[in-house]
Amino acid sequence: LFTFGSAVRRTTSLLRKMLDDFDPQVVHGFYLVNHGHYAVGAGRHPTVVTALGSDVLLSPNESWLLSRIVKKTALGAARVIAPPVLVGELQKWGIEERRLLSLIMGVKSELFKPSRKELMVLFSRGFSEVYDPINLARAIPKVINEVPDVRFILAGNGPLREKVAQMLEDTGPSVTFPGFLPEDELAILMGRARVVVTPALSDSIPLAALEAMASGAVLVASDIEANRQWASAGTPVLLFPPGDTDALAKALIRALTEERLSQLALEHGPPLISENWHWDKAALTVEALYHELCFR
User: How large is the angle between the packed helices 259-276 and 245-257, nearest 10 degrees?
Assistant: First the structure.
């Protein structure tokens, strides 16, 4: 703990010197645990921090130290940007409504768009425990038994990737692990995938959900608050109880075999994202916040 504290103090001191030399009008830190914490600790400039999800939903429960760090960071910032699902929790910490900007960052719908659809399921969340790739690995053989021609692409990296690969050794070419994908390559796969799956156990605004809808894919998602909001958005979203392998497999099979679901996703998903959650619109909102803090 002492070594950790010394490292934090050294980093904060170095960042403060760099900021004094650069002299920005606003400092913006993303994620409350690290970058946001340093941005607030460096002081002397108006600070914006963006809460992303696990920093609010999970980190405070991991240790008293992380709880103190994330809450102190949020309370010390001039403004806190957060997706709607996190706003209530942040208000419980004592952050006034006037200091909160509820915002979904959105996606680039000119990049994430439908292409020729294939019998493909894409998982792009990575192989951390919170995204529950183990449950997906258990469900995949059940899906292949019912839909033999399906392909699964499990993208990203993480500590559970090797274990998932071992669990799926017998699936052969039906499952591939391309690793981390640049945004443009991910967008191409999203455009081709009939189904996108996000089995996360906890989340705020899963970017994969927005990318899926923009790409005209059927979304199969765990029934948590962050995903539940999309079920009434007008595009097909199949929810399943978190951790329920059989329910996940059934949802994937339905998404792959019911042609009407794919047609609805193509018809409603892309315009929904373009009109409501485009990256450029969110960027303009953040830019207006910068101007407010620069000239107050």
Answer: 90
